[in-house]
Write a structure and sequence with these properties.
It is built from 23 helices and no strands. It is mainly α. It has one domain (31-212, 231-463): Up-down Bundle (Growth Hormone, Chain: A).
């Protein structure tokens, strides 16, 4: 009982959230830190564009392939089911070989498969391409979280976690704008073609940047040691350390998967069928549904920025709890109005809560993950949660077949509202019984290809390694706090 009480969410210690005006935080970064973060944010944004292109095209796809809405949403389910495979493949490659080339290959694969979706001639081909796209999509998030946050000063990570995660909402926003203005002039395929172009652009941006500062420092550490290990030996060490990390952190693994199952039901339950809910349930036009979607994503971006920054002061878990309560308070406004002004306001305020809670996820998972496996652990946990929640769209459409509006249409709004309320409760429970490692200096841990990496060993030589190229004076924020970091306790 004492252990349970001691683990309850509480405000971080004062020394763990020094200062800080968000403008000061942003200005404190070097140009290279900004560039790394921008590259990660663009990659995650284009990932969202490619994914939501299907959600926004359900009606058109139903007509093209002569399939029901339920059958078209099967593609969403399949995409989510295959994402853990991509997280495993690309996450492990990133932890072993670095943040640069695995992400470039991943983005090129997304671009090719997005194009393939637009050219799919049959329903079977469409499903096959979306399965492959799920593998490609699954690798993006973990790599983006590690690249974007491991190069940040610890005190800036809450704010930038929120900004990074809202690349997802911004991608949805871009897809909705394309759907609003470009699709009527062409057809739904333009969504997939533009998404492919943005993915290639993101790959080019990453190509122009160097390897992550973290991996550069670990290479410098090997040279400082005076020992060079072959690639084959590094791979053997990598596999051995992964086993150690799994034995040490298996409880955290289970917690992270349960947490991300709730989070993925949270977002997909409020987004996947929202355009269908507005069109069929409220009888509004496709144009109006798209505008409401845009308003919701504006709310998501605002909520992500505010909640991410606030999590540096409130802690990760308290921030999520506050956002879940906020979401439930605005469920009636999201559900009950029948005109656009009320529905738009409801979408804005509800998505503020949903994506405000999500804004904490990148930094929370990064802080509790084995330090050497920051691309694979968060990414795999995220996508396994996605896999468990993969049937959310089909669950909603099936429930809609039995829960009808007075006009006899599926009541997707009520179904989604019930799901959102239940999942809010689940996330609050996870926050109460779970743990966080607020302010962890995970950038000081050994890499996965080094002995001791799986045990979260800290390399004290970090302070003596050469600074990365860039504006060192401004970037020194990342190295100001030199206190001793202890090896983590077992979760």
């Amino acid at each position: 009982m004492n252990a349970f009480v001691a683990n309850l969410p509480r405000l971080p210690k004062r020394e763990e959230h020094q200062s800080v005006n968000p403008i000061t935080l942003i200005r404190s970064l070097t140009w290279l830190q900004h560039a790394f973060f921008a590259s990660a944010w663009i990659a995650w944004t284009c990932d969202a564009i490619d994914f939501f292109a299907v959600s926004l095209s359900v009606t058109s796809l139903s007509k093209v392939y002569d399939q029901s809405t339920h059958n078209i949403t099967t593609s969403i389910t399949l995409t989510l089911l295959f994402r853990p495979l991509g997280a495993i493949i690309f996450g492990l490659l990133s932890d072993r070989y670095g943040r640069k080339w695995p992400l470039i290959a991943n983005l090129v694969a997304c671009a090719v498969l997005s194009l393939g979706t637009g050219f799919a001639a049959t329903y079977g081909a469409f499903l096959g391409v979306r399965c492959l796209f799920g593998i490609a999509m699954g690798g993006i998030w973990g790599q983006c979280a590690s690249l974007g946050l491991e190069n940040m000063p610890a005190e800036a990570r809450g704010l930038f976690s929120g900004i990074l995660q809202q690349g997802y909402a911004f991608g949805y926003l871009i897809a909705a704008i394309i759907n609003l203005y470009a699709v009527p002039k062409h057809d739904y395929r333009i969504l997939f073609f533009i998404g492919a172009g943005i993915s290639l652009f993101a790959a080019i941006v990453r190509l122009l940047l160097p390897e992550s500062q973290y991996f550069a420092e670990r290479s410098a550490a090997a040279k400082l040691e005076g020992t060079q290990v072959s690639s084959a030996q590094k791979s053997k060490i990598f596999i051995s350390e992964a086993g150690k990390a799994l034995r040490l952190h298996w409880i955290r693994c289970i917690f992270a998967i349960l947490l991300m199952t709730g989070f993925n039901f949270y977002s997909h339950g409020s987004q996947d069928l929202y355009p269908v809910y507005i069109e069929d349930g409220k009888g509004l036009s496709k144009h109006t549904a798209t505008v409401a979607t845009i308003m919701g994503n504006c709310g998501a971006i605002a909520g992500g920025f505010i909640a991410g920054w606030a999590s540096q002061y409130l802690g990760r878990r308290i921030t999520v709890i506050v956002c879940c309560i906020w979401t439930c308070c605005f469920l009636p406004l999201w559900l009950l109005p029948n005109t656009f002004p009320g529905l738009g306001a409801g979408a804005f305020l509800l998505q503020m809560g949903v994506q405000g809670a999500w804004s904490v996820v990148p930094i929370w998972l990064s802080e509790i993950s084995p330090v050497a496996y920051r691309a694979s652990f968060p990414g795999i946990a995220y996508q396994l949660g996605n896999m468990v929640s993969a049937a959310s769209a089909q669950i909603e459409t099936t429930a809609g077949d039995t829960l009808k509006t007075p006009e006899g249409l599926p009541d997707y709004g009520k179904v989604s509202a019930i799901l959102i309320g239940v999942v809010s409760g689940w996330l609050i429970v996870c926050c109460i019984v779970g743990r966080e490692d607020h302010g962890a200096h995970f950038e000081r841990g050994k890499a996965a290809f080094e002995k001791g990496g799986g045990l979260d060993e800290i390399d004290d030589r970090h302070d003596r390694l050469p600074e990365p190229r860039g504006d060192e004076e401004k970037g020194s924020v990342a190295h100001e706090e030199k206190g001793q970091v202890q090896q983590r306790e077992i979760a």
